[in-house]
């Protein structure tokens, strides 16, 4: 599984990254978790608001920090 966290590196983006790491760790799953900070890459993916989250290339959330339960559901 490939999970991408998009953002400029602000506190909200960091919080989302930490949530994702925690959810994956608690579930005992393996995933490639990537921080994407390049604004050209972010915009090229159609993301206009950060933080954003994509799982296996599909953007599932943008402009907010999802609850851990949401992230857990998206990574099942």
Structure notes:
There is one protein chain. The chain has three helices and four strands. A four-stranded mixed sheet has the order 2-1-3-4. With 76 residues, it is α+β, with helices and mostly antiparallel strands. Helix 1 (11-27) links the parallel strand 1 (2-6) and strand 2 (32-36). Helix 1 packs across helix 3 (68-74). It is globular. The chain has one domain: Glutaredoxin (3-Layer(aba) Sandwich), CATH 3.40.30.
Counting helices, strands and paired strands, the structural category is: alpha+beta
Termini gap: 10 Å
Radius of gyration: 11 Å
**What does the overall shape look like?**
globular
User: Kindly state the mean pLDDT as a whole number?
Assistant: 96
Query: Main β-sheet, in a few words?
Result: 4 strands, mixed
**Poorly predicted sequence stretches spanning 5 or more consecutive residues:** none
Supply the CATH architecture. Answer: 3-Layer(aba) Sandwich
Give the topology string: H per helix, E per strand: EHEHEEH
